[in-house]
Amino acid sequence: MFKLNSLLVIFLFLTACAGPNTARMNYDTAELDAEAALQREMALKKYLNYKQRLHNVSYPILKAASQFCANKQINSVGAQGSASADFKDSWRITANKILGSDGFIITWVADNGPAAVAGLAVNDKVIAVNDVQFGTNNLQHKKFYAEINRIQTSKSPLAKLTLKRDTQVLNLSIKQEKICGYPAVLAESDAVNAYADGKRIVITKGMMRFAQDDQDLALVIAHELGHNLMGHLDKQQTNFMLGTILDLAAAASGINTQGTFGSAGASAFSQDFEAEADYVALYYMNAAGLPLEGTASFWREMAAEHPGSIGSNHSASHPATSERFLAISKTIEEIKHKIANGQPVRPSLKN
Ligand SMILES: [Zn+2]
After folding, report:
1. From CA 321, how far away is CA 275, in angstroms rounded?
2. Is residue 32 part of a domain?
3. C-alpha distances in angstroms, 152 versus 11, 22, 110?
4. Is 27 a member of any domain?
5. Contact 129, 160 (CB under 8 A)
6. Tally of domains in the chain
7. Ligand 1 centroid vs 244 CA: distance in angstroms?
8. Distance between the two ends of the chain, CA-based, in angstroms?
9. CA 246 – ligand 1 centroid, Å
């Protein structure tokens, strides 16, 4: 009995400690729903802002690098859009409010791109592409998106868009331009990372926040484009290896950690591939007319945030941030030298 009592006392003591000391506020369901709806609207607008920035920075690089990706080029109108029918459940209601309930809404147009030149603007509602009508029912929706995909690889560069702008119906004929066929997409993750999967360039929200300066974001995008364009994923022949910007195992280690990072076996050529992606990235940025001066400082900022990635470690899958800073600085010197000597400004390939 004594034992039981003492257990009871301990139990009561624990529950007393675990509970809050103040009463929780009361709110009714309508208030809660209204606040949730407002927060979803803010979240969707922010998501669209992230995507706009990603396209603004990636598009000029994809376009300029098309000279380096001969058999991987696609057509592009230089615009992006979204339809509320792409969203599910409570997000559909939010999307209806922001994008409208019918039609494919233009959410981004490249400055001076083919769509901009033809007169397409953000918030235009596309109701047909090459006479394939937009529809919210499943079949029509699929047909519409299939047509959007088809024009990217069609032989004719012309795309006909039927729009609704206020009460006007407009027909635009857009002559598409060539870009590298590796679209930049946003991943919801808060991890500071980016990767290439052989088809796309994936940038996390965490990386978008870390790379506050557009020049930093451009370097990350160009690096991932390098992995795709140089065929690193085919060469690695392992599906699970993604061409990431940073060795996360190393980066997660803090100051004073003397560990062995990454798996040497799984990433035998990875340091070389990482170095190559950094190297060609500078050439893509240069081709896009972006300033290179100061680009290397990205790796100083990364080192400050992830001290585990500073020191050289030959078993790590990625070169150390110190090496990457120096290699980028040397590449910029190489590019400047080629420009000064009137040489073609292309990556120097081994024979
Ligand atoms: Zn990489």
Report:
1. 11
2. no
3. 67, 60, 16
4. no
5. yes
6. 2
7. 4
8. 87
9. 7
Spell out the residues 6+ positions from residue 157 whose beta carbon is closer than 8 angstroms to its own: 75, 175, 176, 177
Element spanning 164, H or E: strand 158-165
197 Cα–ligand 1 center, Å: 11
Q: 3-state DSSP call for residue 163?
A: strand
Ligand 1 mean position, distance from CA 324 (Å): 11
Tokens of 214: 């557009």
Cα of 259 to ligand 1 centre, how many Å? 21
Task: Answer with the one of 180, 202, 237 that is the final residue of a domain.
Answer: 180
326 and 213 within one domain: yes
From CA 205, how far away is CA 217, in angstroms rounded? Answer: 11
DSSP 3-state assignment of 188? coil
Q: What is the pLDDT of residues 300-341, one digit of tens each?
A: 998 998 888 888 766 677 788 999 999 999 999 999 999 999
Residue 220 domain boundaries: 184-340
Query: What's this model's pTM, rounded to 2 decimal places?
Result: 0.87
Question: Are 209 and 328 found together in one domain?
Answer: yes
- Picking from 158, 301, 315, the residue whose alpha carbon sits closest to that of residue 219 is 301
Q: Which of 180, 197, 216 is the last residue of a domain?
A: 180
Side chain identity at 62, as an amino acid letter?
A: L
Do 136 and 217 share a structural domain?
no
Give the pLDDT confidence score for residue 248 in this predicted structure.
52
Q: How far apart are CA 340 and CA 280, in angstroms?
A: 19
Both 336 and 228 in a single domain? yes
Low-confidence residues of the chain: pLDDT under 70: 1-17, 236-269, 313-315, 351
Residue 82 amino acid letter: S
Count other C-beta atoms under 10 Å from residue 331's C-beta.
22
